Every structure is written in C-alpha cells, then in structure tokens.
Amino acid sequence: MMAPFANPAEERKAPRSVLFMCGMNAIRSPMAEALAKAMMPAGTYVASAGVRPGERDPFVDVVLEEIGLTVGRHQPHTLDELEDDYFDLIVTLAPEAHHAALELTRSMAIDVVYWPTPDPTVATGTREQIVSAYREVRNHLALLLKHRLLGQMPEKMA
Questions:
Q1: Where are the domains of the chain?
Q2: A GO BP term, please (predicted)?
Q3: Are 20 and 93 in contact (CB under 8 A)?
C-alpha cells in the first residue's frame, strides 16, 4: 500500500540549487549542506548560511566523520557573505532563519520550507550524551533530505 503523498504521477524533481539556513551556520545548516552534497544529484548547487555570525562547532566534524563526510574548511557565514543569492529552494532549520528567509524572499519566486530541527547545543551530560544529540540531528536531517528532497519512500512504508 502506498502512502498518500507518494503519487508516482507527481514525481518530485530535485531542486538545482538549495540553501540551508539556521541561526549561526555552525551546526544544523552546515551539517545539512554536507549531507545534501553527498546525496543530491551531481550538479546541484548546495550552500548554507546563518542569520548571524557563529563559531565552527567541533561536534559537527565528529558526527559527520562517523559516516565518511566532512564540512571541509567550512567557516560559519551569514547571508550577506554568500557569493550567490539565487536558489530554487531555501530550507530553514530554525525559527529565526525561517523568518529571515521569508523576509528575504518576499519579492522573489523562491520556495522556502521550514524543517524544525532540534538544537543539539542544549544537550548536557557526558561527551557521549552530547555527541548522541548531534547524531540525532544528523540522522534527522538525512531522513528529511531523503524523503522531502529526493522523494524516497521511508523503508517502513515501501
């Protein structure tokens, strides 16, 4: 039995350019960018930015390295610092980023979607408990990319 949203006649096309936005471009959006670059079709332009300046978070490197990915030399940057400002899709991962994206695109034909994504910096406890919170965010973003951008059915529904 097929899920109601999975209509083969309405095959989804992956966007050609995607911007991921969060508060400081330190955790959620660079993680989403790295995952999307690995998962999206070749030739897809993927970038990330924050609403305000942030600092690189070493736990992002830890959880991406676990799955063979990296953010490379990524340093957090804001929307104003982007080289390109046209995207087919802007995916916001935090409320403040969503509001900023809607304001930015008011007069543009750019789709903006909000994927509520937890902030792993609120995790406390041992190093392993904190890393686990970052893994959950990584896995959450990977699932959203597969299902919402690439149109893949969840395994349980297939």
A1: 17-149
A2: response to arsenic-containing substance
A3: yes
CA distance 122 to 33: 22
Strands (E) across the chain are located at 17-22, 45-50, 89-92, 111-114
Task: Confirm if 93 and 29 have CB atoms less than 8 A apart.
Answer: yes
CA–CA separation, 111 vs 23, rounded Å? 19
Maximum distance among all Cα pairs of the chain, rounded to whole angstroms: 49
Contacts of 83 (CB under 8 A, 6+ apart): none
Measured between alpha carbons, how far is 121 from 148 in angstroms, rounded to an integer? Answer: 25
Q: Rounded to whole angstroms, how far apart are CA atoms 77 and 61?
A: 17
Cα separation, 20 vs 37, in Å, equals 11
Per-residue pLDDT tens over the stretch 44-83: 999 999 999 999 999 999 999 999 999 999 899 998 898 8
Q: Are 48 and 26 in contact (CB under 8 A)?
A: no
CATH for the stretch 17-149: 3.40.50.2300
Tokens matching residue 11 = 């095959």
Please answer whether residues 62 and 32 qualify as being in contact, where contact means their C-beta atoms are separated by less than 8 angstroms. Answer: no
- What is the chain's length? 158
pTM of the predicted structure, to 2 decimals: 0.87
